[in-house]
## 1
Amino acid sequence: MPEMSATARWFVGRTNGPLYRRFVRRWLLQSLKLPAGPAILEIGSGSGDLGLLVHELFRPSRLVETDHDPAQVTATRASFVRALGRVPPEVAVEQADALSLSYPDRSFDAAFAFLVLHHLGGHFGRKAHESFERGLSELDRLLKPGGQLVYLELVQLGTIRRFLQARGYVAVARHRTLGLLERAIWRKPG
Ligand SMILES: C[S@@+](CC[C@H](N)C(=O)[O-])C[C@H]1O[C@@H](n2cnc3c(N)ncnc32)[C@H](O)[C@@H]1O
């Protein structure tokens, strides 16, 4: 079973939460409009910091937090317990590979992929392109018509844009930080 390195896990667990609470919070509040009680999926939930933020901001009727690394699944669960005293009934924290998810087509109003697409399949270079497309195909399959894909990513930004535009997605918000890190929201047609 593939796992994050201990160093990467340490880094992600300590830095992303504060950054997300400070910067991503404001961006999501301004830019992401969802129906009341949305169904939301997160892939590569890691420390669970983004999931907690999404839970607080959007009050989902269903929030599915997934990661393929069992240690990260435990970390996500622990974050909910620390912050809320439990994993609330509308939240499911599950071990799952983002390249092959078992949820039915058109299940979610929004899907979050923060700093995870470049991990899919563990590939860099030529194979990264295929992994990106496989991961994006899964998210496309799982989003309802009009659903929104929200991501933070550093690499293969052109691959992501071309994939989504070819399927009729429209960019709702796209920003680059330091010319490198893209945060974006795309709406699926329908
Ligand atoms: C850099 S961390 C980002 C974690 C979190 N999204 C954040 O922004 O703080 C990448 C996460 O993706 C997970 N991951 C990598 N490949 C995956 C896959 N194929 N399926 C599901 N999760 C995966 C890792 O276990 C890790 O928790």
## 2
Amino acid sequence: MRTICFKCLRQIDSCLCKYVPPFDSGVKFVFLMHPKEAKRQRTGTGRIAHAGLIDSEILVGIDFTKNARLCELLADPQYYPVMLYPGEDAWNSQKEGFKAEIGNRKLLAIIIDSTWFCSKKMIRLSTNITALPKLSFSGSYRSIFTFKKEPSEECVSTIETCYYLIKELQQAEIVSKDVNPECLMTAFKEMIKFQLQKENDRIEGKIPNNHATDFKYTKKKEIPTFD
Ligand SMILES: [Zn+2]
């Protein structure tokens, strides 16, 4: 019988929670997951981010306009809710007036933790989220998750999004300099190493190969050290 970590939904031998001791980032994070993807987070990183970020929640759905918990959060005056999304009209932490706009409220960062394909429908239906102010990055980042196919190289994973956002908010003095988000990146790197190792073990026949015979899966991958 497989034993699964209830937090990151990974098998105990590959559980990544030990790399992310929970810390308070000063931001409330809400991860929106598509029901199809919420149960199989093999390469997803939202659950690992959630394990590390004390004030974070995972909400599962497609149309969030009537999601009771999300509506409750959006109506709560202690929060300044934003949708993490790029765009010309998006805020970024360096934009003048952003800190003043948040004021005494706590930033509530809503992140769609879904593949590009599934997120399209979620965005189309969830007009309460798309009506929110958008927040983007001031810098541009590339994912270190090189083997995950995304429509653009600019697409960073959910856990990297949290990491870079916290770093940028620290620069803008919205998040305290005392917060140390490095464990998010550490856990992400461990996840990549683990997955590449699994792939190599499969190629070498150490574990069953469920993939169709395909040249892509016969070439062993170099496991990065991230030094
Ligand atoms: Zn875990």
